UniProtKB/TrEMBL annotation:
The gene is AGER. SUPFAM superfamilies: Immunoglobulin (SSF48726). GO terms for biological process: astrocyte activation; cellular response to amyloid-beta; glucose mediated signaling pathway; induction of positive chemotaxis; learning or memory; microglial cell activation; negative regulation of blood circulation; negative regulation of connective tissue replacement involved in inflammatory response wound healing. It is a single-pass type I membrane protein. Residues 1-23 form the signal peptide. This is Advanced glycosylation end-product specific receptor.
Length: 406
C-alpha cells in the first residue's frame, strides 16, 4: 500500500551504542497513502513512542502519540506504532521523526525526509509548424506538459539527437505555471530553429520530459515525433496587380476582382492600399469588390511583405465607373440606360398624344364656328343640305372613331 522508496539511508551509531538514529529519504506519489515505520517500537501496546513531524502543514513540530487523537485526516499513529498518512499531498513534504523505546529499554530514533511527486500526462507538441523555411527563424512548435510535480525539465531532439539552445540557430522559450489549487506544474517550451540552407529536407523533432530522481520507475516521457519539410526561400522579385475585368472600369453595381501576384517562398503577406492609404481589411491576396459604387473608385495597389526581403508595392491600378451618358447607350444591360430608354419612349408617345389632342380640339372648334354661321344665315338651302350631309357624315365618322377608341 505504501509507495515507499528509500533513495539512501545512513546510520549513525553513537559511542555508547544506546541511541540509534536512522535517516531515510522517502519519496511518495501525491494522493497515495504512506506508512512510516517507527523503528524499534513494540508491535503492540504497551509502547513508549512519539512521532514528531515538521512539514508545510505544521507551524513548528507537531507531536503525535499512540494514545492521542489522529491529526484530522492528515496523519495518525497505527496500533503497531507506524504513522499513516492516508493521502499524501504537497503540504506533507518535510521531516518525520519517531522516538521509541524497544523491549530492551534502548531508545531508537527514526528520521525520514519526505518528498512527494506527481507524474504528468504524456507531453505533447502543440501548434506544430507545417513546414520550415531555410535561412530564417521558424517556430517548430510548443512542447507542453501538464500536471507534474516537481516541474521536471523539457528538452528537444532533432533526428534523435539532443538540441541545445545556442541563441542563434536554436532557441527555446520556456514558461512554468503552477495550478493555484493543486500546486501541480504546467511547463512549456517553444522551439525556434533556423534551418541551414542545404541542410536536411525532412528533419524530425521530438520533445521529452525528465521527471528527476524522485519518481521511481519511469524517469523520461517522450512526445510523438513530428516530421517537417524544409523549403529554400525564393526571394520576392516583383509584385503585380491584375484587375478583372481588364481596365478596371465597370458600370455602377458591377464587380471587380483585384489579384495581387507576389511569387515568393514563404508566401508573403498582402496588404491593400487605396489612393495611398491602407484599407482596413485582413491580409489577403485577392480583393473582390462585388458591387462597385462611386466610393470604390480610386487607385488601388497591393503591398507584399515577406520576413526576409521586406515590403514591395505593386504599380497602382485604377478602378472606375463607366459614365452612363449619351455614349453609354451600349451598356444596355444595367438599370440606368434601360430607364433612359423607357423615358425616351414615353416622351415620344406623350408628344404624339398631345399633338393628336391639339389637332382634335382645333378641328372641333372650326366645326362649331361653321355650324353657328350656318344657323345665322340660311341663304342657300342647297348649300345647307350639302353642309348638313357633310356634317352628318363627319358626325358619324367621329362616333365611329370614338367607338373604336380605347
Ligand atoms: C537526502 O536528501 C538530501 C537533500 O535532497 C541530500 O542532501 C542527502 O544526501 C540525501 N540522503 C541520502 C542518504 O540520500
Ligand atoms: C503496521 O501496520 C501497517 C498497516 O497495517 C503496515 O503497513 C506496516 O507495515 C506495519 N508496520 C510494521 C512495522 O509492521
Amino acid at each position: 500500500m505504501a509507495s515507499l522508496t528509500s533513495s539512501g539511508a545512513w546510520l549513525l551509531i553513537l559511542s555508547l551504542g544506546e541511541i540509534v538514529v536512522g535517516s531515510q529519504n522517502i519519496s511518495s506519489r501525491i494522493g497515495e497513502p504512506l506508512v512510516l515505520n517507527c523503528k524499534g517500537a513494540p508491535r503492540k501496546p504497551p509502547q513508549q513512542l512519539e512521532w514528531k513531524l515538521n512539514t508545510r502543514r505544521t507551524e513548528a513540530w507537531k507531536v503525535l502519540s499512540p494514545e492521542g487523537d489522529p491529526w484530522e485526516s492528515v496523519a495518525r499513529v497505527l496500533p503497531n506504532g507506524s504513522l499513516l498518512l492516508p493521502a499524501v499531498g504537497i503540504q506533507d513534504e518535510g521531516t518525520f521523526r519517531c522516538r521509541a523505546t524497544n523491549r530492551h529499554g534502548k531508545e531508537i530514533k527514526s528520521n525520514y525526509r519526505l518528498r512527494v511527486y506527481q507524474i504528468p500526462g504524456k507531453p505533447e507538441i502543440v501548434e506544430p509548424a507545417s513546414e520550415l523555411i531555410a535561412g530564417i527563424p521558424n517556430k517548430v512548435g510548443t512542447c507542453l506538459s501538464e500536471g507534474g510535480y516537481p516541474a521536471g525539465t523539457l528538452s528537444w531532439h532533432l533526428d534523435g539527437k539532443s538540441l541545445v539552445p545556442d541563441g542563434k540557430g536554436v532557441s527555446v522559450r520556456e514558461e512554468t505555471r503552477r495550478h493555484p489549487d493543486t500546486g501541480l506544474f504546467t511547463i512549456q517550451s517553444e522551439l525556434t530553429v533556423t534551418p541551414v540552407p542545404g541542410g536536411p529536407l525532412n528533419p524530425t523533432f521530438s520533445c521529452s520530459l525528465s521527471l528527476g530522481p524522485r519518481s521511481s520507475g519511469q524517469r523520461t516521457l517522450h512526445t510523438a515525433p513530428i516530421q517537417l519539410s524544409v523549403w529554400e526561400p525564393e526571394p520576392l522579385e516583383e509584385v503585380r496587380l491584375v484587375v478583372e475585368p481588364e481596365g478596371g472600369a465597370v458600370a455602377p453595381g458591377g464587380a471587380i476582382t483585384l489579384t495581387c501576384e507576389a511569387p515568393a517562398q514563404p508566401p508573403p503577406q498582402i496588404h491593400w492600399l487605396k489612393d495611398g492609404s491602407p484599407l482596413a481589411i485582413a491580409p489577403r491576396s485577392v480583393l473582390f469588390l462585388p458591387e462597385v459604387g462611386v466610393q470604390d473608385q480610386g487607385i488601388y495597389s497591393c503591398v507584399a511583405t515577406d520576413q526576409s526581403h521586406g515590403s514591395r508595392e505593386s504599380p497602382g491600378v485604377s478602378v472606375s465607373i463607366i459614365e452612363t451618358g449619351e455614349n453609354g447607350q451600349e451598356e444596355g444591360s444595367v438599370g440606368g440606360p434601360r430607364l433612359g430608354l423607357l423615358a425616351l419612349v414615353l416622351g415620344v408617345l406623350g408628344g404624339l398624344v398631345t399633338a393628336v389632342l391639339l389637332v382634335g380640339i382645333l378641328l372641333w372648334k372650326r366645326q362649331h364656328r361653321l355650324r353657328k354661321e350656318e344657323r345665322k344665315v340660311p341663304e342657300c338651302p342647297e348649300e345647307e343640305e350639302e353642309r348638313a350631309e357633310l356634317h352628318q357624315s363627319e358626325e358619324q365618322e367621329t362616333a365611329e372613331s370614338n367607338a373604336g377608341g380605347p
